[in-house]
Structure formats: C-alpha cells, structure tokens
Amino acid sequence: MGRFPKDFLWGGATAANQCEGAYNEGGRGPANVDVVPFGEDRFPVMFGKLKMLDCDAEHYYPSHEAIDMYHHFKEDIALFAEMGFRCYRLSIAWTRILPNGDDAEPNEEGLAFYDALFDECHKYGIEPLVTICHFDAPIALIKKYGGWKDRRMVDAYVHYCDILFHRYKGKVKYWLTFNEINMLLHMPFMGAGLLFEPGENVEQAKYQAAHYELVASAKAVKLAHEVMPGCMVGCMLAAGEFYPRTCAPEDVQAAAEADRDNYFFIDVQSRGAYPVWAKKRMERAGIALRTEPEDDQTLREGTVDFISFSYYSSRCITVNKELMEQADGNAIGAAAKNPYLKTSEWGWAIDPVGLRITMNTLYDRYQKPLFIVENGLGAVDTVEPDGSIHDSYRIDYLRAHIEQMEKAINEDGLPLLGYTTWGPIDLVSASTGEMKKRYGFIYVDKDNAGNGTLTRSRKDSFYWYKKVIASDGEDLA
Predict the structure, then answer these.
(1) CB of 140 within 8 A of CB of 205?
(2) Most buried in the list 285, 416, 419, 455, measured by CB within 10 Å?
C-alpha cells in the first residue's frame, strides 16, 4: 500500500434525521423524514404513493428519537476524535433552523445547537463537512407548495442557505447542496417531499422538481462563494457503476442508459447545462420543463467545486426480465444478481473493485476532485457477554474498499479529498428504518422497536479504523 496524502480527510458521515432525534425539541418544526414510519408502510410513504403528512398513533417513527445525538453529540464527537477523525460529515436539519421552512427569521436555538456542534468538532481538530439538505423537506412547505414541485421552494432553500453561510462562514469550509440528489427519481417523497394525485403525470412532476433543485443548488454554490471566499461546495450522488449482465449489445446499452440516468443531476451540477441526451429523453417522454429565462445562466454560474458520492455496491442490469427479477436487496432501483459477487445480509452486492471503477468513471466524466462521503457495510452485530463486538466482516469490507481507493490515487492518479464512512456510529437505516442494520464503529444500544439504553460502546472496528487513520491508510491489518 502506498500512503494517502497527508491532508487526506479521514472520517465518518451521518444524517440529522437518522441520528439527532429530538424531532420536536429546540423549536424544530416537522419535516418529511419525521412522518416516514417503520414497517410495511415505509416504502409506500417514501415513494410518495401513500400520503402521510402527520404522525399517528398506529405507526412507530424511528427518526423521532433516533440515537438521540442531539443530547449526546459531545460524547459522540469525543469518540470520533479518539479514532482520529479529521473530518465529520453531518447534515443540518432545515426545520431546526426554519421551523416552517421559509420563516423570515431563523430559530436561534437551532442555530446555537450547530454552533456548539461545530465548536466541539474544532476542539478536536475535526473539519465539518455539512450537507445542507439530506432528505429533508419541511412539512409546512409540502402542505403549502407541494414540496419541490413549486418554484417557490428555490427561494426558500436559498434563504435557508443564506442564513447558514453567514452564521457558519468561519466554522465550515466544505459544503454539499443536496444529499444523493438522484434519489429524487426513486424516492420522491423522501427526496423532495413529492406526493402524487391520481392521474398526475408523475415523470413530469419529478423532472420539474429536479430542475428546481438544480437551480437551487447552483444559486447556493454562487452564494457560498460570495459569502465564504475559499470555501468548497460539492454535489452528492448515490453512485455505483451499472454492469451489463452479459456482453449482449442490448445489455451493454441498458447499462449505459442506467448510468446516464444516475449521472443526470451531476452532469448539470458539474458542467452547468443539461446534456443533449437528457433533453431528447424528456422530449420523447413528453416532459416540458417550466423554466425562467435566467435559468441557463444560473446553472452555468453555479457549478460545483468537487464531486462527492456514496458507494455501497455496483449494480448489474439486463434486458432479460426473468434475470432482473432474481435479485434481492434492491429496494430503491432494479438490478439483476451479479453471479461473481457476494452480498451483504441485506442483499447488496459487495464490490470493492467497483469503487475504483466508479471513481475513474466520475473523474473521466467531470475532471473535478472526488470525495467519498459514504461507504460501509450494514450488518447484524452480536454483543458478547463481556460487552465486546467482533465485527471482522465490517473490517474486511472497509479494508478492501480502502485498498481500491489507494490504487485509484496512486496508480490511476485521481484526486481524492477524503473518505467518510457511512454511520461511524450506529443509526437508523434510511431505507428500512431498522436499527439492527448497523454500520458503525460505535455500537448504540437500541433495537428496531425503539427499546434500549442508548449506551455507546466500541466495536473491534473502532480500534482498527483508529489504526488506519493514524497510519494514513498504510496499516490495514
């Protein structure tokens, strides 16, 4: 192994709605993430097929308490520091700052919470990387505008950004505009607060919302550079190369089309214009975007500084419908089973080499620095009688991916800013709402039903990752 750059940003990543809890404390208003329940109704709500804009007594809502990081952040950041984190990626809850999403004045208690959190990071020399919107749409704006279907969401978002940038300009250098922005097409309510009426043109609604998010992102990038000279603003996508299941040209074409769908948003955020194929595809589908004359210039002027992404697995695709139905663990997007890869307990293909392939594809496509802001293994952990947790499977997964990162840097010459593993501390799964699907180096005593003491404890991987960071990736044993 070659060494990683000395200024490489090792760390971990979380999302407010999956870890903070305290959903109705400190002046925070309700958001879409608060009404997504655990259980059989979870996916219908996330996909915008089942309307739920308020909580009820029949469902359990994991985000309400999550792991209560709102009250434990000092303890948690101290544990991150013990591992040697140089970077902590987190998200700000929009409704903690603006309870109704577009309030004229911000909620000072919410602003003060993040001030304290950032101060705690800097106390240990940890650089915050802040996601402005991580699957977070204020309920008030969903009821008022229909979420990102309405252009007025752009102004609400930019107002929110303006508050953040002026408040935290001395504390946060790295920003991301939207988390996994491409998930809007797959989880419309979770991604953008979209609900669909019977007979509505769903594709039109999704791509219109996408346009507004892209305009909002571009405006935020330009504003950030004006308010915080020297800051870096990135985009973020759910990445993972699509492989053709066979070498049949039809499968190769299907994989290429699936990749294009995945990169659609990032093409615009990185290059500042819609790609020609996207325009033609929308035209063929009868999608006519409502735009303003200045939108083209806004997109051109608001391109991102770096490309960040999540990577958990590659995907396999084929035109053979029977083979496409054989894969499990693909709740978000369709994929075929790859016979050459093992899978996690949740059916996700484990493909470290796919990370290097994905990195090269992204850099070839955009020629901008990369940042891996999510990568990890969701697994069931067993607590031994003495309290220890032996998660060698997680260490094996991360080691194999770090080895491929090193090759991408030293053999392929790719500029990689950093690596923040997903869920350095156990948190609520975004897809299934489970706690038993654990990613962390730090175990949190809580189960799927919300029972537990919330006590934090170190797993074997905690000590392993500490060693990795201390050696700049040289010691992976």
Answers:
(1) no
(2) 419
Any domain includes 191: yes
Whole-angstrom distance, CA of residue 154 vs CA of residue 212: 6
**How many residues in total does the chain contain?**
477
Cross-strand pairs, 178: 133
292 catalytic residue (yes or no): no
- Mean pLDDT score, 39-57: 95
Spatial separation of the C-alpha atoms in residues 106 and 98, rounded to whole Å = 5
Residue 354 and residue 131: Cα distance in Å, rounded? 25
- Bridge partner list, 343: 349
CATH number at residue 228: 3.20.20.80
Q: Cα 67 to the chain's mean position, in Å? A: 18
- Nearest C-alpha neighbor of 83 from the set 381, 419, 372: 419
Instruction: Provide φ and ψ at 91, rounded to 5°.
Output: -120, 155
Who's near 281: CB < 8 A, 6+ residues apart?
Answer: none
Q: What residues make up the domain containing 147?
A: 9-470
Distance CA 427, CA 26 (A): 21
The single residue of 374, 384, 411, 434 carrying the catalytic annotation is 374
Distance CA 301, CA 299 (A): 6
Q: Do 477 and 464 form a contact (C-beta atoms < 8 A)?
A: no
Q: Which of 95, 127, 131, 122 is nearest to 110 (CA)?
A: 95
Token look-up 């790609």 returns: 275
- Based on the structure, what is the number of domains in the chain? 1
Q: 4 in a domain, yes or no?
A: no
Q: Tokens for 471, please give them.
A: 């050696």
- Domain-embedded: residue 3: no
- Say how far apart CA 70 and CA 251 lie, in whole Å: 47
What is the pLDDT confidence band of residue 326, given thresholds at 50, 70 and 90?
low
